[in-house]
Amino acid sequence: MEQIREYFETLVRLTDRDWHIFSSKLIRQEFPKKTLLLKAGQTENHLSFIEKGIIRFYIPKTESELTFDFVFNNAFVSGYSSFLTQTPSTYHVETLTDTVLWRLTYDDLQHIYSETLIGNTIGRYASEGLFLEKAKRELSFLNESAEQRYLKLFKEQPHLIKQIPLKYLSSYIGITPQALSRIRRRVT
């Protein structure tokens, strides 16, 4: 839980009262790898902070799944469009490794917003972070080759990328597993 406070303290100063209200709503949960945290058709009810683990977002398809995001340690994670609108998700959210999350429900977050001075600021930083990651990914697809996207992911998360199966990495980058194998051979 202290990881979360340290994360927030890099952005804004928390009073002990605000931290107490916020932290009292957090629930620590552990999930084994390959756990579906959110299924398409369900409504997201949690905003979570990853203490440990890797989470994958994907669209289930009959012939192959389309992976469109990974989230790693020390970051917020949520089926955020579903969370904000409280409507069913169109994608799955799954743990790729054993994962530890600190979670807030939608209602608890609304309570934090109304009861603390810093709640809205924290919410804004969390949502801005999620938005910036989404924008970064979209721009990456518009401006970079598959090889550049792979190298960037490898540079940003070298110790974690080894834990992601090639079929998910290739889907995320937008290429076939065979094309990713060729890229990996070329850059090593």
From TrEMBL:
Gene3D superfamilies: Jelly Rolls
Membrane-spanning residues: none
Domain Cyclic nucleotide-binding: 10-112
GO molecular function list: kinase activity
Keywords on record: Kinase, Transferase
InterPro entries in UniProt: cNMP-bd_dom, cNMP-bd_dom_sf, RmlC-like_jellyroll
Name of protein: cAMP-binding domain of CRP or a regulatory subunit of cAMP-dependent protein kinases
Source organism: Olivibacter domesticus (Pseudosphingobacterium domesticum)
